[in-house]
Structures are given as C-alpha cells and as structure tokens.
Predict the structure.
Amino acid sequence: MTAYAEVDTPAVLVDLDIAERNIDRFQAYANGHGLRVRPHIKTHKLPFLARRQIAAGAVGITCQKVSEAEAMVEGGGLDDVLITYGILGEAKLRRLRHLAERVRLAVVADNPTVVDGLSGAFGNGPPLRVLVECDTGAARCGVQTPEEAVQLARTIDDAPGLIFGGLMTYPRTGGPAGAQRLLSRTKALLEATGLEVDVVTSGGSPDMWRAHEAPVVNEYRPGTYVYMDRSLVLDSTCTLADCALTVLATVVSVPTPHRAIIDAGSKALSSDIRTMTGYGHVLGRDDIVIDQLSEEHGRLVSEQPIDLEVGERVRILPNHACVVSNLFDAVTTVRGGRVLGEAQVAARGRVW
Amino acid sequence: MTAYAEVDTPAVLVDLDIAERNIDRFQAYANGHGLRVRPHIKTHKLPFLARRQIAAGAVGITCQKVSEAEAMVEGGGLDDVLITYGILGEAKLRRLRHLAERVRLAVVADNPTVVDGLSGAFGNGPPLRVLVECDTGAARCGVQTPEEAVQLARTIDDAPGLIFGGLMTYPRTGGPAGAQRLLSRTKALLEATGLEVDVVTSGGSPDMWRAHEAPVVNEYRPGTYVYMDRSLVLDSTCTLADCALTVLATVVSVPTPHRAIIDAGSKALSSDIRTMTGYGHVLGRDDIVIDQLSEEHGRLVSEQPIDLEVGERVRILPNHACVVSNLFDAVTTVRGGRVLGEAQVAARGRVW
C-alpha cells in the first residue's frame, strides 16, 4: 500500500470530504425537523471545522471546558458558545468572565454551589445565561427530578448576574423517550411558575437520527457525527464510508504467521473499548482483531494467515474518534486520497 | 480538603520525595545483584527525572520512539540511549542517524527488513549497535526461537554499519523463568557460533523484584517503578505509600446520595482498566468505585453514603501512571504536601 507514503506514522488522517458531508447531512436533517444544531467540538478540537459547522447552519458551538472554549475562540470566527459543564473555582471563573466579554456565552449547573460561584463572578457585569442540567437517565450529572430542576431554575433566576437559560441534558443512549418525558414535564412545571424556557438542548451522536422523537428538544449537540467511528458503525448510526477519521500505521513486526504488530498503540488509538471486541477495525480486513494494545504497539491477530509484511501500512478505524483527536498534536487533512496538509489540534489536552 | 488549593484541577501531582525513593530503592536492589539499570522514560517523560535516575547509578535510558529520545536528549544531560523499537522508514532513520551523532545509541530488531533499513542508513558512518528482540512469552514483538535469534544476529553482524549488541526482551509478567530459559539458550547458541553477547536486557516493573531470578539478564529496564500505580499496588509490587503520581480532581456534582462526579475523566485518568475494577483509587476511600469515565467526567459510586460535597477535592491513584503522563502538557511537582512548581512533560505525545 503506497497511499499517503509521505506521511510518517502513526498519523491521524481526517478526510474533509467525508467530514463535510457528515456536517451537511445532519444539518439538513435538523433543518427538516426545526432543530437548531450546536455541535460539540470535543471530537475535532479544530477551529476551522467548527467554522465549517457554523457555515453549514449551526447556531454556535458546544465545549466541555473553559480552556476548550478559549482555544476555539482564539482560533477565530466563533462567537456563540455553550459550555456544558458546571464551572467551579476562582481560576476558571475568572477565565469564564473574560470569555463572556468576547462571545455570547452560556453554561450549565446542576447544584446551588455552582450557581453561587457563577453569581459571585458575574454579579457586577452583563448577566450570564445558565441552563439547568437534567439527568434523564444517563446517571452522570444533572438534577434528578423536574421539581429539583424548578427549584434550581428559581435559584438561578434570583441570583445576581445570572439569567435562567433553559434545560440541558446528555441523554441515555437507546432512544429519546426518557428525555422527552422528563424534559417536557420539567418545562411545563417551569412555565407554570412563570419561568420562560428558551433553550431545551440534548445531544449524543448514537441517537442523532432520532432527535426529532423528543419534540420538546429545540437544540441538538452532536459531537462524534463529524468524524463518526467504529462504535457508531457497530450501532448502525453510520456506515464505514461515513467515517472521516482513521489512523495510519506501519507494520513493524510479523513474528508469527497469524500475528502482526503495528506502530499504533494506546497512545494513538486510546484504550477505549466499551463493549466492543478489539481496539479498532483494520480497513479491508474483517478477519483481523486488534486484541491488545501497549503504549506504542498494537497487536493484530487473525485465524487466517495475517498476510502483512513489515513496512506495509494499514489504516485503522478507531473505536472512539474524540479520544484519538486528543492524543495528537496535529492531524493530517486529506481529500480523495490526497494529503492537503497538517492541522494543529488547537483544543487538544485542554482539561481545565 | 484544602491541600494544593493553589492548583487548578484536574492536575497531575508528582511527589518527588517518593519518586526519588523509588529510584534509589530499585537501584540498590540492582546493585546488590550486579544488574545494570536502564530506566524506561515512558513513565515520566521528564528529562530532569531521567538525569536523577542516571545520578542514582543508571547506565543510560530506554525510549520507545526516536522522537521520545530526541525530547530527552534535547532536555540535556543524557548521553546513552537504547530505543527498544524496530525503527522503519526514511524519516525516522534520518533522525536516528542524527541522534547517533549526539549520544551512545542502540536499537533493536526482530526481522531482516528492519536490519536492512538500519544498515542502509548507517552503512557509511560510525556503526550502530543493534540488539535482537526476543519473544520470551509476552507474544508481542520478537523472534520466536533461539535459532531465529542466531540467524538475525548473524544478519546484523554481516550488515554494513551495524554491530550485534546483544539480546532484548519484554518478558511475560508472572516470573522470569521463561525469559531465563530462552535467553540463556539463545546466548549459548550465539557464543557457540563465535558471536559475543554484550548486553542481555529485560524489563517490566511488575516483576522487577524478581529480576535476579533470570541471571542471564545483565541489564534491567523498569519504567513504572519511578511513580508506581494502582496496578502495581494490586499485584503487591508496592504499597500505596510508594505511589508518587496522583491526579488531583474536584467534585463538580453530587446528584444522588451514592454518586459524585469529578472533573477527571478519560482525558485525565485514561480508560486503561485491564483486569481491574474501576478506573482508579480515591485516596482514603476504599468504599468508592470509579465505575465510569467519559472524557471530562469521572463517576464515583459507593454503597455507603458518598459523603462528598461539590467543590471538594479528591486525589486519585490512576490504574496506569505512564498513560496519565502522556495526557498532560505539564505536571505539578510536590514534596511533603507542598507544591514546588510545574514541569513540562517534554516527551508527551511523541508517537513517532
């Protein structure tokens, strides 16, 4: 295989034709259902792709951390950011305040401690919009009941410097029914108390084509949809042809007839495995399982002859695209099998 | 908990007192058994700790990739490097050649394709030492039999620009018996053909206190031993008090009486889980399991009341220290509960 011979391995290849098609396809779906789109940038971490999402019709972007938002805003051309995280602590609040001077900003909270901190930081300036995060079945963050949501929304509404901005959830995957039931009840309760619910925002790529089944939701935050990945192929959200991100690797050892070792290990593919078998899919080789990763080695095994030579290159579809983006300082952009250049992953490693 | 209040979270804390004690303890053990130590820098990726390992008595360092070696050598004070990887491809070979001009260098090979490439790059200059990598049971890279090792050693010995430098293995964990049997037989075969076996190098922190049980080995490459981690506590290689690297995290949500969410997810702790239960150990809280990570959230659950407050800080001992070092641009160095400063993780993300 001589494609991409000029690229040193391991490398992340991002096919922009495919990424753009994914962006446009979900935007068209959302437009057809009257849903606003606010992509989560955690998947690509690239300002230029965020601008492409906005150009396609997205209303703004979603970030998980203040530092991610900073990286995207510094990249230019982005002026509407939702941070779906409970921001705590002086250092982060100071940076959040600075960010609010530059873009239209909103954050979330699921407890009064976070609300107090936000109010302390924003009490004297232009107000900050705060959405109430609701647990609709994913059992991570979020208030547990509609009644709790109403109580926290009132707390926000009463807090100096803050405006209640609506409801946010990261739903349990497997269908939007739970989110619809809880969010619609919460919205009705809030409206009965006189609080307007501007935004009801949900997310998640696995259920993105069923987003319209939760009509209470008026904004959707897909992340992985821009690249897709093996997990989304396996759950039938997309096909292999929709996957924009792959890892280019070189076979460095073929110790036995049924085993080959590549130069992409957990530092390239990550050890995310969830309920899948193996750490990625070798394109064109359904018989191969990547059954073991150490940091710099991936082990490929097959019941058939492995039929790979030392020096040969393979392309791997990773289990989870977002975590792979976070492992590389730069990705190689390609179109139609040709290399365009390198893009610095501006928001890589932004954990604060 | 107010310790480390000045550090923003999530952060990696490296206790230098503990790290130095770990370095000195293994060096003393190795000295007592006539074993040379060549630490693998993948765990800390910090030039100043590599220099500390050399100061304690190590003969040089081990790196997995050319780019890691470059980062360490650029950091200064290191002049003897073994790269335990089969280097392939023009770009890497050019850099390897450049590196060889600056330090005493050796690499490994387990196949003739790698040997050919090395010979092509080093044929006209000062020779490069190449060790034969042997599979002694770990079933990753390495020649499969003593006879194969002899054949490859001859190929190296015959190749222009290369010198046969000895044998290298990353053994199967669980005891050095397999490595001893295969390496001693290989060494005897090589010597019978007139090839001198200078270095026989093995590695792995899990079996480091049993290194002397493979007397054919004269050099050992421990990596994780500098920081230790949860996996090494669980297999009794060390105790909790020997663990130098922890992740400082903040509780951002306590949605239910038995669940808390922290701001350290897979981007801070990695999703390495192997055969362990949970993604890390919360110091002082044996009842808590970190049962789920998303990229920026860690979920803590307990059958007892979770008894944590939003804003409170916890320290997590990660499952695997090396992969955590690779996720952070910088670590916070501490001694005796006090912050010393920040150290840039010079070799982070060096996958080439």
User: Anything to note?
Assistant: The two ends of chain B are 41 Å apart (CA to CA). The first strand of chain B starts at residue 11 and ends at 15. Chain B has two domains: 17-226, 231-319.
